[in-house]
Design brief:
Length: 566
């Protein structure tokens, strides 16, 4: 299974690399930018990790982003994402094998591993592959912990430490991980408490792990307070989800986005995007997607009742083992936690989801539906197992004994067809990434060559610009972040905004940003080199400091053109 997952990952990486799609998502570029700027900055410091996005994905990318070429091409984000994808495949198969045979477990793995949207995301610097890995292994280890809790206390204690470690990782990866950690660790404490207060007091592993799980979110609060002056800066600062939603939403009398203050609509949007992420979408897409969702949910519920209805074992250890295995199945419910979490987040958490088929007929945050993929995959495995069991009960018919094998063969074919059709029609997450790139493409293609041409006259010239707006501009130009004065440079940034020409030789401003306002307020010593416009996007203007280029022979600076570059 590991070889199968590695082959799928490698094939996807090769395809995405040849199509140049690793940097389609602006968020992926931003994640790489954060990982790079911690090391490549005028004043390297921990707060370069930022305040809103949680830090673990960037920390994992840092060693790879230190290589300029890997940072500029996006390869630095592929390595941790691909490893997380392979680990999540191994974890899902291991989880399924607690209750399912090899065929059903492999079917669940195939449904998960061959999903084109997931295969695309694992070639990018996005956080979803890492978080899926953490959640899958959390549930897998929780199930094993519950199975061996009474029969093998020593192994259960070791598993507690592993569970705590992966929960801490989830807390520092995505905010949904905070809810998972709260539910999972509280449930562990309740389970131990039910076995006696003395056992809970005599469990040093539990208290050690509890300290780590509790300290993780507290550490993030402290980091925001010390680094940015507000312990909730990530939730109410200028780069928070709330602030971004208020800046980008179309203001008016109506809701900010579909599902705003309406959990039911938020639920519909999340469930639908989860279906579109996982299942092919022909003309009868609602029927196919809904059928898969119902089968997965029904298969999971049926597995619980099937474990409960198993005939009693002949001896006491086997009875305990069967009971523990059934109770361990309850942890699978954690895989379904994204349903209520995102229904609430869309309604009250400033997290919109847009679908092409529903108003406002766009695609935005479609990758959030990927978080339900492990639950759907495991549910499909449970449903396939129940179908095989029912077919296996048919006796006295010709070829009846082959019906389960035939059913599995058909289901494997359907999973393969589903993956192929998803690729041919354009996976919705990949399509959103392409649309995301289209909004930046003109600047990505025009600005870096122009800046390189200017820098030929002064290779070490300082560039003043907001690097967070289009982080790839710096990488594509071929300069380091140290050669820029950007928003991460604190006091130097503020000083440069008060006198741009005296601090930088080249100034890049987008209409309405801080640099643009600074140039308008302090234009002394600056001249326009060129202006770049794109429909629907703020225009960019490149300025040069007259004094810095007074002795240069760069023709672009000697005869600057105020006209937009073609």
């Amino acid at each position: 299974m590991l070889a199968f997952s590695m082959a799928a990952s490698f094939a996807a990486i090769v395809w995405i690399w040849t199509h140049g799609a690793m940097l389609d998502y602006g968020d992926a570029v931003a994640h790489l930018h954060i990982a790079r700027r911690v090391l490549d900055a005028r004043f390297p410091r921990l707060t370069e990790l930022g305040s809103v996005w949680l830090p673990l994905p960037h920390i994992l990318m840092m060693p790879f982003a230190a290589n300029f070429a890997w940072w500029a091409t996006g390869l630095a984000g592929v390595i941790p994402s691909a490893l997380a994808y392979i680990a999540s495949c191994a974890g899902l198969y291991r989880l399924a094998r607690n209750w399912l045979g090899p065929a059903a477990s492999t079917l669940a793995l195939a449904f998960f591993a061959l999903n084109p949207n997931l295969l695309y995301l694992q070639t990018t610097a996005m956080t979803e592959p890492l978080f899926l890995c953490e959640i899958v292994w959390t549930v897998a280890w929780l199930a094993e912990w519950r199975i061996c809790l009474d029969s093998d206390p020593a192994r259960a204690a070791r598993l507690q430490l592993a569970i705590a470690a992966v929960l801490v990782a989830a807390v520092f990866t995505r905010y949904d991980g905070w809810i998972v950690a709260l539910i999972a660790w509280t449930s562990i404490g309740v389970a131990l408490l039910r076995r006696g207060r003395g056992r809970l007091r005599r469990s040093p592993y539990f208290w050690l792990a509890s300290a780590a799980v509790v300290a993780a979110p507290i550490a993030w609060f402290v980091y925001n307070s010390v680094g940015f002056g507000d312990w909730l800066y990530f939730a109410r600062g200028p780069y928070s989800a709330k602030a971004i939603e208020l800046r980008t939403a179309t203001h008016g009398a109506g809701p900010l986005h579909p599902g705003w203050h309406n959990p039911w609509v938020g639920l519909l949007f999340f469930v639908k995007v989860a279906e579109l992420d996982a299942v092919l979408a022909p003309a009868w897409k609602s029927l196919w997607g809904n059928l898969t969702l119902v089968l997965a949910a029904a298969g999971t519920v049926a597995a619980w009742f099937a474990e409960k209805a198993k005939p009693p074992a002949e001896n006491w250890p086997d009875i305990l083992a069967c009971s523990a295995r059934r109770r361990a199945l309850g942890w699978v419910a954690l895989l379904w936690l994204p349903v209520p979490f995102y229904a609430w987040s869309v309604a009250y958490g400033w997290v919109p989801i847009f679908l092409p088929s529903w108003w406002p007929h766009s695609d935005y945050n479609t990758r959030y539906g990927m978080e339900l993929l492990p639950a759907l995959a495991l549910g499909v495995g449970f449903a396939a197992h129940r179908i095989a069991v029912v077919l296996g009960r048919w006796q006295g018919r010709r070829f009846a004994q082959f019906l389960p094998e035939i059913a599995f063969a058909v289901l494997f074919v359907l999973v393969g067809v589903n993956a192929i059709v998803l690729v041919r029609q354009g996976p919705i997450v990949y399509t959103e990434g392409w649309h995301n790139l289209e909004a930046r493409l003109s600047f990505d293609e025009a600005l870096p060559p122009f800046l390189r041409q200017m820098l030929r006259a002064s290779p070490h010239a300082t560039v003043l610009m907001n690097t967070s707006r289009y982080p790839e501009i710096v990488a594509f130009t071929g300069i380091s972040l140290r050669q820029t004065i950007n928003e991460g440079d604190l006091a130097l940034w503020q000083a440069a905004l008060l006198a741009p020409a005296s601090h930088a030789a080249i100034v890049v401003a987008w209409d309405g940003d801080e640099v643009d306002c600074a140039v308008r307020a302090h234009p002394e010593g600056l001249a326009v080199a060129s202006r770049f416009a794109d429909k629907g996007q703020p225009s960019a203007t490149v300025y040069y400091a007259k004094a810095a280029f007074a002795q240069r022979t760069n023709p672009l600076v000697a005869a600057p053109s105020p006209e937009p570059a073609p």
